[in-house]
Design goal:
- This protein is of the alpha+beta class.
- Among the domains are: about 110-390, Glycosyltransferase (Alpha/alpha barrel), CATH 1.50.10; about 715-830 and about 850-905, Alpha Horseshoe (Serine Threonine Protein Phosphatase 5, Tetratricopeptide repeat); about 960-1035, Immunoglobulin-like (Sandwich), CATH 2.60.40.790; about 1140-1180, no CATH class.
- The chain is about 40% helix and about 5% strand.
- The chain contains 40 helices and 19 strands.
- GO terms for molecular function: lanosterol synthase activity.
- One of its GO terms (cellular component) is lipid droplet.
- It holds the Pfam family SQHop_cyclase_N.
- Belongs to the SGT1 family.
Length: about 1200
């Protein structure tokens, strides 16, 4: 780990670090504490035991960190009100000392890089606990399929996310040779390198010194000199864009670049696909990858940029103009810092302000020191590591809503909750903004006296709906429930004055300020990754919250500005009716999406007397919501609704959306109770025994394309990844099944579960290849729906591996050839030396682009398949091609099906539960045709009784797992089938075969046939025992002491009964006679020469049996002719999921070698055509290494 700018630990314990499941350093979660100082939230790591003893960990700390809260289980709720009471019982324990509630407000993946780059370029030591946990978080949020990062945690990988988070990891100490970094770098290179990032990425890279400013489109501070009447003057821009481009323009004009360091010099080589000095950065100002180009630059903006670059900058940009512009921009930066006590508006602009202060005021100035302190306000610690919140918290917003929920549920008059609500009211009182900022007009700030902010008063920005919710909560507590009157009438009236000033001429409300510019300013949107960001727009949530609050205020203060309030409400209501869509919906801006807007709108309409019974608008809004209710009674909406502006169902119902929809319907007075009962039932079913509801999908959104997450629990898929990495395959299968319950149509989870099924070890029953094939084909169907090429090819790869394991070599070859054709990978290793050279080359790739998992595996699996096919006799059915490129009639399991699978796993069964409602046709299952041509529900196929039927495929197809063991006298076979009636089992025992048939719980018949047996049995002493969970077959050997290496032998193979037990142990006459005479290769090992041929063969070869057996003999899954694991648990391993062990071995050997050793290995192996491998460069460099064929 690079310690270039990572600060030291403060005690000799060096952070009390341990390793997490990925092998990354991890701090002790029991030592983290959240300090809430009057609403300023910062995380602290207690290194000393003395600190630990003085500051106990709170329930809230444990909750945020994903630790057990140790709260008791509550009585199960029998009604929605009891469920609400249980929820409040849990939630009350999370209140923080000042009276507010805290939470994670993460999701965007472009916030953390700005802060870390700022730390680096201002020579600010990065706290070691931050560096440790940032590494963990970013790797936890890395896309498991392609290795990249996106705009937000649920977004596709992009240049923006991948470049900046890769750089961040390097700055906090991640090595460039970490396999995950290699994978990320490979994706970035596939994108074309960092030059294809959006404007903001290029800005930060230029500040860091790993890109030239010529690549950044101009942001001249002269814009700030434009008169206010100019239609595109910056004061008209949306506040966030204004505050981002203000310091950006100052730094662009100064061309500030951090001096080169060894690390940034190395990054210059890692981020691009060609040498840094050869890149024409100016030619890539407008280069952007399609993955990032959500809002393409307009022809007008491109034209203006061209004029600025080619005319203004070189000819008209006089030093006097530049000086004046920079001075005015700096003055605006200074006022922003002082007005927010250096906490800034948000974590995009504030780090830029700090860099500007560092440049203008100097490294040791007060402004830089205060910024350093304030950046901590944005950091948030959780179980996955450390992230950056979207603001310095959501303190006011959450506290206001929580008090309202308690009031609405009827708990506000319960003495039990009065102390908690009093503290909440005290917090709201403390954070109402009491005065306007100094020089309000000069710094373009909106009136704020009487307002409430989103987070706390230090940040101090007016937000319309936060003001409305703060006003409403205060009135509810003080006026309705007679809590202490902490906020005076005058201050409530100040709040109303503020709201009336924020209404736009349209009747709608924006969030921070009134709308100041035309929508045509979007033509100048330079961000590329966001849409709708250039001006303050009217938002349904802000408008309706204001209506509701003003209505409540007027009930208690009917004489204050009554006419103005009436007019404001009427204009706002007309605005909401005007923007209602023909289907009855409203598009939401700050939550997902149509559901969120409906909740606010229907409540606000009800506040002015328009309900389902009295208002067509309310009725249409309710009908829209009802049309989106899902089968289980809940609602679930995807973040894609925000991007596409079209309602998009989530893959499963969501607790939050269900609550929003039910609230909306109840507020609107919807008269029919059944939809509400179904919704409440779902909410109650998802509540945990301690009263909480777990985080599900993302709920928040901004700028149409970026999502925001509220408190999050441990991700099942992440746990599955860790289990898979640790070779805990059964756990991996369970976690991926849980992840699929959460996201039933996620192809990547099916791919990972297919990988896990293929990697099951012998102790767990061996690879479950039919289950792997089923998952791969489901993943393939889902990936085709999404049109995701990488997912399609990855699914095909898993499909091919599963077919190979099932000994369907013709089918496997067809699938591998399909992948090869799609990837252009027509070059395949012709011999083992090519494989080894390829492995070594990949291991030492450094800055080169690593291949995708399937591209690394493909040549090896093609060789394996060719080897198998070459040994088959002509006409062998194993060589037959029976599959198509895409299987047909794939049925995607529902959430209900997946829950059944999870129940089966929890009950001790291995593999996938083939319920009547799940399965695929073609490769892994079948459907019975009805007379009308339709298909019945899926039924597991009955295995064939013929010798050609493979025992390796029977168990998972019928979900009956079998295993066997043997003693000196007997072979015991166990079939794991629950609840089979004894009388329904048909048994036929013969001396050379056995046959069992019995019905499964699904209604299908199951046949278990072994014909011919590996060796004869004594039928009189053999027996079948039917138990509640299994069937046990005890076969008495006719020849005691004889070792069975499989259960079956081929019908055409000589029976082993003809051989004596002593002969079994005798050495084969064909054993290599010259094994000891293997060539001695040059070596630098202190242990002497290594026989590399022998070493490679132990990795890739199979032990030869002395027994004469037909190659078609049927055997249990995961066993070769000698009973050894092959093409299964061990060979289907590696990070990619299926690579050859020799590939993994030489990668590790080569990766850990020094440069001379690497050169020796490559030269010796290449020149000897794979017959010699030396690690001694002093010997190898002397001349050509001759071919040394191994002895016969």
């Amino acid at each position: 780990m690079s310690n270039e700018q990572i600060g030291p630990w403060r005690t000799a314990a060096n952070g009390h670090l341990t390793k997490d499941a990925n092998g990354d350093a991890k701090t002790d979660p029991l030592r983290w504490r959240l300090l809430d100082d009057r609403g300023r939230q910062t995380w602290h790591y207690l290194e000393s035991d003395e600190e630990l003893a003085k500051w106990p960990q709170s329930v809230a700390d444990k909750y945020f960190l994903g630790l057990p809260t140790e709260l008791p289980e509550l009585p199960a709720a029998k009604s929605p009100l009891q469920g609400a009471a249980n929820g409040l019982e849990f939630f009350s324990k999370l209140q923080l000392p000042p009276g507010n509630w805290g939470c994670e407000y993460g999701g965007p993946m472009f916030l953390l890089p700005g802060i870390i780059i700022t730390y680096y370029v201002t020579n600010t030591p990065i706290p070691p606990e931050y560096a440790t946990e940032i590494i963990r978080y970013l790797f936890a949020r890395q896309n498991p399929d392609d290795g990249g990062w996106g705009l937000h945690i649920e977004g596709h990988s992009s240049v923006f996310g991948t470049t900046l988070n890769y750089v961040t990891l390097r700055l906090v100490g991640a090595g460039e040779d970490d396999p995950r970094m290699i994978k990320a770098r490979g994706l970035l290179h596939k994108f074309g390198g960092a030059i294809y990032g959006p404007h903001w990425a290029k800005f930060w890279l230029s500040v860091l010194g790993v890109m030239e400013w010529d690549c950044v489109n101009p942001v001249p501070p002269e814009l700030w000199l434009l008169p206010d009447w100019v239609p595109f003057a910056p004061w008209r821009w949306w506040i966030h864009i204004r505050q981002v481009y203000l310091p950006m323009s100052y730094l662009w004009s100064k061309k500030f670049t951090h001096p080169l360091t060894p690390l940034t010099r190395q990054l210059r080589q890692e981020l691009y696909v060609q040498p840094y000095d050869s890149i024409n950065f100016a030619a890539h100002r407008n280069s952007i990858h399609e993955a990032d180009n959500y809002y393409p630059k307009t022809w007008l903006l491109n034209s203006l940029n061209s004029v600025l670059v080619n005319v203004w900058n070189p000819y008209l940009r006089l030093p006097s103009i530049v000086k004046r512009a920079e001075e005015w921009a700096w003055e605006l930066i200074r006022m922003e810092d002082e007005n927010t006590d250096y906490s800034g508006l948000a974590p995009v602009s504030n780090p830029m302000n700090m860099v500007a202060c560092y440049l203008h005021d100097g490294p040791d100035s007060y402004s830089v020191r205060r910024h350093r302190e304030r950046l901590h306000d944005y950091m948030w610690m959780k179980d996955e590591g450390m992230l950056v919140n979207g603001t310095n918290g959501v303190q006011v917003w959450d506290t206001a809503f929580i008090t309202q929920s308690i009031v609405v549920a009827g708990f506000a008059d319960d003495p039990k909750w009065r102390p908690m609500l009093t503290k909440a009211l005290e917090f709201l009182e403390d954070h109402q903004l009491r005065e306007n900022v100094p020089d309000q007009e000069k710094c373009y700030r909106q009136h704020r006296k009487g307002a409430w902010p989103f987070s706390n008063k230090d940040q101090g920005y007016t937000v319309s709906d936060c003001t409305a919710e703060g006003l409403r909560s205060t009135i509810q507590l003080q006026e309705i429930y007679k809590f202490p009157k902490l906020i005076s009438d005058e201050r409530l009236k100040d709040s109303v004055d503020c709201l009336l000033l924020m209404q736009n001429p349209s009747g709608g409300y924006s969030e921070y300020e009134i709308t100041r510019g035309s929508k045509m300013l979007e033509w100048l949107n330079a961000a590329e990754v966001f849409g709708g960001i250039m001006i303050s727009y009217d938002h349904p949530e802000c408008t309706t919250a204001s209506i509701t609050a003003l209505s409540l205020f007027s009930k208690f203060y009917p004489d204050y500005r009554a006419d103005e309030i009436k007019v404001a409400k009427e204009k706002a209501v007309q605005f909401m009716k005007r923007i209602q869509r023909p289907d009855g919906s409203w598009y939401g801006s700050w939550g997902i999406c149509f559901t969120y807007a409906a909740m606010f709108t229907l409540e606000s309409l009800a506040s002015v007397g328009e309900t389902y019974e009295t208002s067509d608008n309310s009725r249409r809004g309710c009908d829209f919501l009802l049309s989106k209710q899902m089968e289980d009674g809940g609602w679930g909406e995807s973040y894609l609704s925000s991007e596409t502006h079209i309602y998009t169902h989530h893959e499963k119902s969501q607790v939050v959306h269900t609550a929003w929809a039910c609230l909306a319907l109840m507020e609107a007075g919807y008269p029919h109770k059944e939809p509400l009962r179904k919704g409440m039932k779902l909410l109650m079913s998802r509540q945990q025994p301690n009263g909480e509801w777990l985080q599900e999908a993302i709920e928040g959104v901004f700028n149409q394309s970026c999502s925001i997450l509220l408190p999050l629990t441990m991700n099942s898929a992440s746990q599955g990844e860790k289990a898979l990495a640790n070779s805990d395959i059964p756990s991996a299968i369970r976690f991926f099944t849980q992840a699929l319950i959460e996201l039933p149509r996620a192809p990547s989870y099916y791919i990972k579960r297919a990988t896990a099924h293929s990697r099951l070890k012998s102790a767990d029953g061996g690879p479950d290849s039919p289950a792997a094939l089923r998952d791969a084909e489901i993943a393939l169907a889902l990936a085709r729906e999404r049109g995701k090429r990488e997912l399609i090819l990855s699914a095909q790869m898993r499909r091919g591996v599963a077919l190979f394991q099932l000994e369907r070599y013709g089918d496997a070859a067809f699938v591998f050839k399909t992948i090869q054709d799609k990837t252009g990978g027509d070059q395949e290793p012709q011999d083992r030396s090519a494989s080894v050279q390829s492995a070594m080359a990949n291991a030492g790739a450094g800055g080169r682009t690593p291949k995708n998992g399937y591209e690394q595996e493909l040549p090896i699996w093609i060789l394996k398949t060719k080897g198998k096919l070459s040994k088959l006799e002509e006409g062998d059915e194993k060589a037959t091609v029976t599959v198509a490129e895409y299987p047909s009639d794939i049925r995607i399991p529902t959430e209900k099906d997946l829950k059944k699978e999870l129940e089966a796993l929890d009950s001790g069964k291995k593999g996938v539960e083939e319920s009547a409602n799940s399965g695929t046709q073609g490769s892994t299952g079948s459907r019975e045709k009805r007379d009308d041509g339709a298909t019945d529900d899926y039924k597991a196929p009955v295995p064939s009784a013929s010798p050609a039927a493979k025992m390796s495929s029977a168990p998972a197809q019928s979900n009956v797992r079998h295993e066997f063991y043997q003693s000196h006298d007997s072979v015991v076979v166990t079939l794991y089938a629950k609840g089979v009636p004894k009388e329904s089992v048909d048994v036929d025992l013969k001396d050379d075969s056995i046959s069992l048939q019995f019905p499964l719980s699904t209604g299908a018949e199951y046949a278990f046939n072994l014909d011919p047996l590996f060796a004869p049995i004594d039928t009189s002493a053999s027996k079948v025992t039917v138990m509640s969970t299994k069937i046990e077959i005890s076969l008495r050997k006719k020849t005691p002491g004889q070792k069975w290496s499989a259960l079956e032998a081929s019908a055409t193979a000589p029976k082993l009964s003809s051989l004596q037990s002593a002969q079994d142990a005798a050495p084969s006459a064909k054993a290599p006679a010259a094994a000891a005479a293997a060539p001695v290769y040059p070596t630098s090992s202190r242990h002497g020469a290594k026989d590399w041929d022998k070493l490679a063969s132990t990795l890739t070869g199979k032990k030869k049996s002395s027994k004469t057996k037909n190659k078609n003999a049927t055997k249990p899954r995961g066993s070769d002719e000698a009973g050894n694991e092959s093409d299964g648990a061990d060979s289907v391993d590696s990070d990619a999921g299926g690579a050859d062990p020799v590939d993994s071995f030489f990668k590790k050997l080569y990766a850990n070698a020094d440069p001379d050793t690497r050169r020796a290995m490559i030269k010796s192996f290449t020149e000897s055509q794979g017959t010699a491998l030396s690690t001694n460069w002093s010997e190898v460099e002397k001349g050509k290494v001759d071919v040394r064929p191994p002895s016969e």
